[in-house]
Please model this.
Amino acid sequence: MTELAGARGGGHRFRSHFEGELDQLRLQVEVMAVRVSEALRRMGVVLATGDLGEARAALAADDEVDAMLVSLTERCYDLIRREGPVASDLRFLVSVLRVLEELERIADLSLRVVKQAPQLHLVVAHPPMFSTLLDMAEEAKALYRTAVDAWSTQDPQLARTLAVRNQVMDGHYAALLDHILALDGRGAAKVAVVSVLVGRALERIADHTVIVGERLRYLLTGDPAHLAAEVR
Model:
């Protein structure tokens, strides 16, 4: 009887330790999300001002995001190998792997905008188009904040709002394309290229926030229908 109780106690301690590791992993994803949030902030500054110093800082900081992706991915695989999780625990680890990829992709897309800093003056010369890009950047950042808040609070209803709100971004992108099609005259091609590169990156950032939200909904419900957003 004593041996059985000891075995049960050992199993309980083992489970508590594993749950602690999962909680720590969830918090570390939030830390990476903060780094990506800073990348988006810098992106917004560069887009609005063309600040080359801020652009250089953004480029330098990207290595930290990449390093966190590698480190946390390795930790997930180690937990899967070492603990052999099943059911909800395995779903959590697989979802974390996916969310990490989305966060890193969002950071990369923000750099795509930042790298256009030397050419942004071309777009600034077209106020309606520039205003649309600024609106897109603000919407992308707002959607990202919602995705991170949903992950931090594990709130499926908050995550659910992302797909609906992303329609606003779709409207901005359609307006941007209208501006591009209306361009003419000397230098129109260069303006169009910069605008498409920046606008497409911002639109894709929004799409990736939706994937984070839908992955969270899958994590919490187990309903594979939420994975449809990842098909792109």
